[in-house]
Amino acid sequence: MNYKTFETERLLIRPVEEEDAEFILELLNTPKFLELIGDREVRTADEAKQYIRKKMLPQLYRLGFGNYAVVRKTDGELLGTCGLHDREGLEGVDIGFAFLPQHERMGYAYESALRLKQAALENFGIKQILGITSKANLASQKLLLKLGLKFERTITLPNEEEEILLYRFSVEEEEE
């Protein structure tokens, strides 16, 4: 099946694929990812390929959207990921993002997340977008607010201990 890709002026946003294993391995093991998002216990390229196959691709196949690789158009470099996630414990689709440290603070996360928010509403018929982040992740909190999500409450996801922040954007609220 052919899955949608999206573009912005600077970025190509395409579904993550198994060939991205080395990049995913690097991203999942950056100090910031480990501290603020969590340890996915992926330590080798083979484990990264398995992670993509078991954790990322099934949702894409099931719903037609999922985790996307964010690629800079000028040189084809993989910068990070941005995705629309159907996550256990959340009633709605969660927008998430993670970038390699050298590509942070350049507007790529906002640019890709804004484009995926638009795709969620226009291409996938999603009426409500959620965002979750740790209390310590101030950059993520600011980005969710900039994307138009509003802080709602703290929650704890199934099989997790840490209380996290839940943000929400709803089409109905925007129309009022």
TrEMBL record:
* Leader sequence residues: none
Tell me one GO molecular function of this protein: acyltransferase activity, transferring groups other than amino-acyl groups
Which keywords does UniProt give here?
Transferase
InterPro entries named among the record's database cross-references: Acyl_CoA_acyltransferase, GNAT_dom, N-acetyltransferase
Domain N-acetyltransferase: start-end pairs? 11-172
Question: What's a Pfam family this protein contains?
Answer: Acetyltransf_3
Transmembrane feature ranges:
none
Per the record, the coiled-coil ranges are none
Which PANTHER family does the record associate with it? Answer: GNAT FAMILY, PUTATIVE (AFU_ORTHOLOGUE AFUA_3G00765)-RELATED-RELATED (PTHR43792), N-ACETYLTRANSFERASE DOMAIN-CONTAINING PROTEIN (PTHR43792:SF1)
**By what name is this protein known?**
Protein N-acetyltransferase, RimJ/RimL family
